[in-house]
């Protein structure tokens, strides 16, 4: 308890509220070129900070207002006649921010993805993305609104440049994109033991002059996925405020600058940031950071979709692994505090692809699980991967009547994971051995024939038509196939099994015209006139040649070398003809093989 009180007293003693030096004008590339104080347009989509105008001593007389470029696109400034002092400003290498509260929102330009509430939702739960996007991380078209009060972030530095202290050139800039309260945001440096170095820079952003407006729509940041907030979005206009500061305003001097190794920011609860802050690369060096996300991406291409938690990502320096991490609940990963003096690169990150998944896209537009990383500005963000599971094709079993074409939807029982879509036109048939007349389309087999059986053909809807050859009946050759999903992944091989059935005409109704004349029975009780009848109630069996009647006995048919050996055949006789390899029936004139077929 005493230690806690001492810490608070120490902090209050070191806190000084200076007369902050606000930025009076900003320039961006909205619509090609936008100046906050003169352009009539109100930004409502993504744009980047190109330059800002700042007076180092405010209303003092030592310095005059100067416009400083950020290095994003000096050519646009030149084209539009803006006089500026060239510089390079880079967003602070943020890699983790406090969890969102119920009043925390992701703000994006009202027109992003289409005006108002659009589908698909154009944002995700990786809040860091909206504080580090844009060129040099200086995107002004996205922001996080109302970061929870009392939460904080800290960033490790690799050294303040002493000549930049008190030189009248801005070292840090901060944005406020909404309607702040009178609560203070605070910024300060600490040493290795977390002692405050210099002063705490404290600012209530509602006292900072408004220099422009932007039009936003808002998504609840504490829902997954973020949900559109129509009430907050009904009034899209929000004020823009920007501050710039010199190290001297933090109490940094030539005597203590070397101890300032960590920058800490504590939020007021109404902090509305386009980026956490941006630093002048001539004034300080931050330890490098690398971040990205892994998505369960069911459409391939640019990585997006649902966050994938628990994927392993490794960081390599000149081919040697130096770090390993796993993605969080938002699919986000980061490597912070990379000492570029110790590890001088080149750098790369490699995703360990989870079992059963495949890479369907990455930041570079390929399907590699490895990305080369450029740390020219001490940070590299958006090193994203999209992964997905291939679709599942399930075996199909069908029956087809003899001499009758039939069509089936072979994709009806197939499916894709993560609500993915099967590309019906991608079905690729795998013809059996001996197939002919093979026709392909875009590299996929669409039709073929098998002599003696029939033809197979699949259309772009995934409908397969089998046309049996005339009088063919049996199991057709097994045909395999694959199908792709919307992410471009190919399914397992599934089989199509088709049986061409024997067919029979419906029985003829009415009075039978003949009855069976030969019967074999092992039963002691039966109709006296069985099987000849002539009526059914007298035991007649209509329209037969041979009637068998037994509960537990079988019949052995006489075998002969050939039926020509039977000198006195009788109508209705049945024999197995060894030479003809069939059971034959004598119809009174000739012996005929009994074959299973349609009774045409």
UniProtKB/TrEMBL annotation:
Gene3D superfamilies assigned to the protein according to its UniProt record, in alphabetical order:
Immunoglobulins (2.60.40.10)
Keywords of this entry: Secreted, Signal
Keyword Kinase in the entry? The reply is: no
Give the UniProt subcellular location, in the record's own words: Secreted
* Entry's transmembrane regions: none
Q: What is the predominant subcellular site recorded for this chain?
A: secreted
Domain SD-repeat containing protein B: start-end pairs: 290-369
Give the superkingdom in one word.
Bacteria
What Pfam families does the record tag this protein with? Big_9, SdrD_B
User: Would you tell me the Gene Ontology cellular component terms?
Assistant: extracellular region
Instruction: Specify the protein name.
Output: CshA-type fibril repeat
């Amino acid at each position: 308890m005493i230690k806690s009180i001492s810490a608070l007293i120490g902090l209050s003693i070191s806190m000084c509220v200076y007369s902050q030096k606000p930025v009076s004008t900003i320039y961006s590339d909205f619509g090609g070129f936008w100046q906050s104080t003169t352009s009539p347009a109100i930004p409502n989509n993504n744009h980047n900070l190109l330059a800002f105008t700042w007076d180092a001593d405010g209303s003092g007389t030592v310095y005059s207002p100067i416009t400083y470029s950020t290095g994003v696109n000096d050519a646009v400034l030149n084209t539009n006649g803006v006089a500026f002092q060239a510089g390079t400003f880079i967003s602070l290498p943020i890699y983790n921010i406090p969890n969102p509260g119920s009043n925390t929102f992701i703000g994006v330009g009202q027109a992003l993805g289409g005006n108002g509430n659009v589908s698909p939702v154009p944002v995700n739960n990786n809040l860091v993305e909206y504080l580090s996007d844009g060129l040099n991380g200086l995107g002004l078209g996205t922001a996080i609104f109302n970061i929870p009060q009392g939460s904080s972030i800290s960033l490790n530095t690799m050294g303040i440049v002493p000549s930049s202290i008190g030189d009248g050139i801005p070292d840090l800039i901060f944005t406020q994109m909404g309607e702040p309260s009178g609560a203070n945001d605070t910024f300060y440096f600490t040493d290795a033991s977390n002692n405050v170095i210099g002063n705490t820079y404290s600012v209530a952003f509602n006292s900072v002059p408004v220099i422009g407006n932007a039009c936003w729509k808002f998504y609840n940041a504490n829902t997954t996925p973020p949900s559109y907030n129509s009430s907050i979005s009904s009034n899209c206009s929000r004020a823009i405020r920007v501050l710039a500061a010199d190290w001297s305003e933090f109490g940094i001097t030539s005597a203590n600058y070397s101890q300032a190794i960590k920058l800490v920011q504590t939020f007021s609860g109404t902090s509305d940031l386009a980026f956490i802050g941006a630093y002048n690369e001539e004034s300080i060096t931050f330890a490098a950071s690398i971040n990205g996300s892994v998505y369960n991406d069911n459409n391939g291409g640019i990585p997006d979709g649902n966050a994938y938690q628990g994927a392993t990502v490794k960081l390599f320096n000149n081919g040697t692994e130096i770090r390993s991490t796993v993605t969080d609940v938002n699919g986000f990963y980061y490597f912070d505090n990379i000492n570029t003096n110790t590890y001088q690169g080149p750098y790369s990150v490699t995703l360990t692809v989870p079992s059963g998944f495949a890479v369907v896209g990455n930041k570079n537009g390929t399907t590699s699980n490895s990305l080369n990383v450029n740390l020219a500005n001490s940070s590299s963000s958006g090193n994203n991967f999209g992964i997905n599971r291939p679709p599942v094709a399930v075996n199909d079993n069908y029956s087809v009547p003899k001499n009758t074409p039939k069509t089936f939807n072979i994709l009806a029982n197939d499916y894709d994971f993560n609500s993915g879509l099967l590309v019906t036109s991608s079905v690729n048939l795998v013809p059996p051995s001996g197939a002919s007349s093979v026709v392909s389309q875009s590299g996929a087999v669409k039709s073929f024939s098998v002599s003696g059986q029939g033809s197979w053909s699949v259309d772009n809807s995934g409908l397969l038509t089998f046309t049996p050859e005339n009088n063919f009946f049996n199991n057709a050759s097994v045909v395999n196939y694959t199908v792709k999903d919307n992410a471009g992944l190919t399914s397992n091989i599934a089989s199509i099994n088709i049986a061409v059935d024997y067919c029979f005409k419906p029985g003829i109704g009415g009075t039978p015209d003949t009855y069976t004349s030969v019967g074999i029975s092992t039963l002691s009780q039966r109709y006296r006139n069985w099987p000849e009848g002539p009526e059914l109630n007298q035991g007649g069996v209509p329209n037969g040649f041979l009637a068998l009647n037994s509960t537990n006995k079988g019949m052995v048919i006489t075998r002969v070398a050939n039926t020509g050996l039977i000198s006195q055949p009788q109508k209705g006789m049945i024999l197995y003809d060894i030479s003809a390899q069939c059971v034959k029936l004598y119809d009174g004139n000739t012996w005929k093989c009994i074959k299973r077929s349609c009774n045409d």
